[in-house]
């Protein structure tokens, strides 16, 4: 394993946001609208490898119009959070898992993997520089967005020979507006997210670009998120546009779609499976059909369903709609198992509950 760590050159922002303005910004957080003072930039070229690691003032970057990513979308990203600890310190949650997934996404997109150690150091360097931006309200955190793209000026279709890796940070509150008690999903009948052999398991921008028309349809239908079905039978539930999905049954068991290469292997998903199994809950990673979902919701066999991800944390699903069907789950609000898992996870993340799996790294 490559354990390269470069020395980061630090250039402080000459004119950072003042403390009073920052406090005002942190008082009214949604998702993805407010950004911190600094960013990380690391360059890669085929001849020199990774070099020129910097923490510098956040700002626009210049790209040539023939920059490869603008044409062929060779781009990947990650999403993880830094949390404020009760004593005022800062912590990361399972950042090594994001480093691993980033390297796997890079491989799928024919990009050079950034060494895990360098990825982790870049995250720590940015959080240290901008730690005053970590909000301390419950449900708030500093969302970190590492990403990497083909920066070579070249229009031929082949893997680029130059890349930029960057990290930006955005203080964030609830992903869904108004911190709604539950969300309504829209089942697209036309669009799928990923097929076998495709890029579904990679966190590449193209997956999200391809999902937007279905997400727009969901919004137009008055729903919060699209839920995608499998591309072969148009039947099995895969995941939402930016979250994995779980089902909770009357016998106390949980089920979630299996990782088969077409869905993102969510770190929240994996953490919740672990926490549930620790608590003696049976968790099945097995396909679940939309027809079965509807029947189980109607019969009461299905008691709860929830979406999960770094941005969405754990969000109850209250209702599911599609062309010709519309059903509610339980009483349409948060269920008990959903709420228990959400609380367990967020208490570990915020350092107020024990961390039996060593998921939290204090910075
Ligand atoms: N599925 C998709 C398509 C996502 O974009 C995300 C968010 O990152 C997830 C699932 C959940 O992954 P994680 O829990 O690692 O954030
Ligand atoms: C995340 O949860 O980190 C994601 O990338 C999902 C996106 C919808 C913000």
Structure, described:
This is Branched-chain-amino-acid aminotransferase. Its cofactor is pyridoxal 5'-phosphate. It holds the Pfam family Aminotran_4. Keywords: Amino-acid biosynthesis, Aminotransferase, Branched-chain amino acid biosynthesis, Pyridoxal phosphate, Transferase. It catalyses: L-leucine + 2-oxoglutarate = 4-methyl-2-oxopentanoate + L-glutamate; L-valine + 2-oxoglutarate = 3-methyl-2-oxobutanoate + L-glutamate; L-isoleucine + 2-oxoglutarate = (S)-3-methyl-2-oxopentanoate + L-glutamate. The chain has 363 residues and is of the alpha+beta class. Helix content is 25%, strand content 28%. The protein contains eight helices and 18 strands. It has helices at residues 19-26, 69-72, 95-108, 116-129, 205-220, 267-278, 290-299, 336-349, and strands at 9-10, 38-45, 49-57, 75-77, 80-84, 90-93, 141-150, 162-172, 183-187, 225-229, 237-240, 244-249, 254-256, 283-285, 302-309, 313-322, 325-328, 360-362. Strands 1, 2, 3, 4, 5, 6, 7, 8 and 18 form a nine-stranded mixed beta sheet that branches. A hairpin with a 5-residue loop joins strand 5 and strand 6. Helix 3 crosses helix 4. The longest helix is centred in the middle third of the chain and has 16 residues, at 205-220. The protein is globular. The two termini are 24 Å apart. The mean pLDDT is 95. Bound molecules: pyridoxal-5'-phosphate and 2-OXO-4-methylpentanoic acid. 2-OXO-4-methylpentanoic acid binds at residues 79, 242, 309-311.
Topology:
Elements: E1 9-10, H1 19-26, E2 38-45, E3 49-57, H2 69-72, E4 75-77, E5 80-84, E6 90-93, H3 95-108, H4 116-129, E7 141-150, E8 162-172, E9 183-187, H5 205-220, E10 225-229, E11 237-240, E12 244-249, E13 254-256, H6 267-278, E14 283-285, H7 290-299, E15 302-309, E16 313-322, E17 325-328, H8 336-349, E18 360-362
Parallel strand pairs: 1-3, 9-10, 9-16, 13-14
Antiparallel strand pairs: 2-3, 2-8, 4-7, 5-6, 5-7, 6-18, 7-8, 10-11, 12-13, 12-15, 15-16, 16-17
Bound molecules: pyridoxal-5'-phosphate (PLP) and 2-OXO-4-methylpentanoic acid (COI).
């Amino acid at each position: 394993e490559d354990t390269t760590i470069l020395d980061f050159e630090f250039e402080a922002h000459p004119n950072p946001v003042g403390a009073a303005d920052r406090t005002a910004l942190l008082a009214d957080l949604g998702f993805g609208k407010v950004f911190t003072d600094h960013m990380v930039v690391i360059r890669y070229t085929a001849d020199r490898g990774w070099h020129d690691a910097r923490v510098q003032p956040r700002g626009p970057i210049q790209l040539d119009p023939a920059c490869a990513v603008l044409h062929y979308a060779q781009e990947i990203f990650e999403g993880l959070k830094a949390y404020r600890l009760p004593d005022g310190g800062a912590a990361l949650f399972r950042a090594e898992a994001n480093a691993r997934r980033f390297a796997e996404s890079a491989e799928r997109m024919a990009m050079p993997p950034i060494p895990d150690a360098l990825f982790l150091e870049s995250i720590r360097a940015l959080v240290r520089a901008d730690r005053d931006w970590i909000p301390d309200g419950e449900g708030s955190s500093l969302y970190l967005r590492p990403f990497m793209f083909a920066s070579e000026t070249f229009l031929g279709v082949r893997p680029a020979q130059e890349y930029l890796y960057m990290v930006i940070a955005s203080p964030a509150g609830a992903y869904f507006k108004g911190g709604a008690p539950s969300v309504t999903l829209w089942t697209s009948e036309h669009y799928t997210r990923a097929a076998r052999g495709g890029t579904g398991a990679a966190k590449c921008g193209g997956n999200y670009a391809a999902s937007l028309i279905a997400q727009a349809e969901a919004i137009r239908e008055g729903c919060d998120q699209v839920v995608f079905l499998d591309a072969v039978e148009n039947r099995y539930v895969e995941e939402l546009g930016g979250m994995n999905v779980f089902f909770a049954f009357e016998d106390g068991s949980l089920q979630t779609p299996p990782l088969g290469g077409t869905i993102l292997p969510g770190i929240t998903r994996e953490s919740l499976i672990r926490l549930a199994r620790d608590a003696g809950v049976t968790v099945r990673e097995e396909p679940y059909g939309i027809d079965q979902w509807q029947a189980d919701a109607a019969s009461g066999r299905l008691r709860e369903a929830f979406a999960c991800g770094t941005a969405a944390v754990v969000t109850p699903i209250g209702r599911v709609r599609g062309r010709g069907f519309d059903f509610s789950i339980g009483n349409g609000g948060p269920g008990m198992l959903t709420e228990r898992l959400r609380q367990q996870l967020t208490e570990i993340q915020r350092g107020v509950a024990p961390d039996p799996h060593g998921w939290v790294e204090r910075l």
